[in-house]
Design a protein that fits this description.
Shape: globular
Order of helices and strands: EHEHEHEEHEHEHHEHHH
Strand order of the largest sheet: 3-2-1-4-7-6-8-5
Helix content: 40-55%
Distance between the termini: 45 Å
Radius of gyration: 17 Å
CATH architecture: Alpha-Beta Complex
Number of domains: 1
CATH topology: Spore Coat Polysaccharide Biosynthesis Protein SpsA, Chain A
Number of strands: 8
CATH superfamily: Spore Coat Polysaccharide Biosynthesis Protein SpsA, Chain A
CATH class: Alpha Beta
Length: about 230
């Protein structure tokens, strides 16, 4: 069933990619029917089958230099929507998300708020549940959600706060800080692949994420953090 929005407002989904062929098809295929008026994949130079997947699943691709911040900004610049929904290429929306999006975007006051989904991992391990609990606390108490939780924001608010900056890392934290508390936790899940946690080890991955956040808070440049993170 199409997702009706008041006054004919359009919604654009923006997904940054870099060699995301392993997860992108599932992400695109799981978007609820009628959720978006357009889907834009902002690619940073993939050499796998990412662009072939985009063409097969009828999304639109824009290309340019890699770096998630500038890819998100590039996708937003190309989007026509009055509302923008930013998703990672390994994140799927859970049951009921389409209705949650409809309700949120149909409320005029939410044009000056943004929404993020509950964080979930597609792993039955108890370690995954601990990570989810930690992210929930971070989201509610510190108002610092993960980029993996998606971001639903009106074009008006996105432009008013300056949008995504061309940062290689911490672009999500940077934007959320500029929202200054105008953030709501939406009652639906964003389900992210646990592959990175399984590959690196849950404890190591969480420690690295928290270290990056702490160092960024202390003023370390995102370009330096990226070099350390990628090692």
């Amino acid at each position: 069933m199409p997702v009706a929005r008041h006054d004919g407002l359009m919604l654009s989904v923006v997904i940054p990619t870099l060699n995301a062929g392993a997860t992108l098809a599932a992400t695109l295929s799981s978007l609820p029917a009628g959720l978006a008026d357009e889907v834009i994949v902002s690619d940073g130079g993939s050499i796998d089958d990412t662009q072939a997947i985009v063409e097969r699943l009828s999304a639109r691709v824009v290309t340019g230099d890699k770096g998630r911040g500038q890819q998100l900004a590039r996708g937003a610049a190309a989007a026509k929507g009055d509302w923008l929904l930013f998703l990672h290429a390994d994140t799927r929306l859970g049951h009921g998300a389409a209705e949650v999006v409809r309700v949120f975007t149909n409320e005029p006051a939410n044009a000056w708020r943004a929404g993020v989904f509950r964080f979930r991992l597609d792993d039955a391990a108890w370690r995954a549940r601990l990570v989810e609990m930690g992210v929930a606390v971070r989201s509610r108490c510190l108002k610092l959600p993960y980029g993996d939780q998606g971001l639903l924001i009106s074009r008006a608010l996105y432009d008013a706060v300056g949008g995504f900056k061309p940062m290689p890392l911490m672009e999500d934290v940077d934007l959320v800080r500029r929202l200054k508390g105008r953030l709501r936790l939406l009652p639906a899940d964003a389900i992210t692949s646990a592959a990175r946690y399984q590959r690196d080890g849950y404890a190591r991955r969480v420690a690295r994420n928290l270290s990056c956040l702490a160092l960024y808070g202390l003023g370390v440049a995102p370009s330096r953090l990226q070099k350390w993170y990628e090692k």
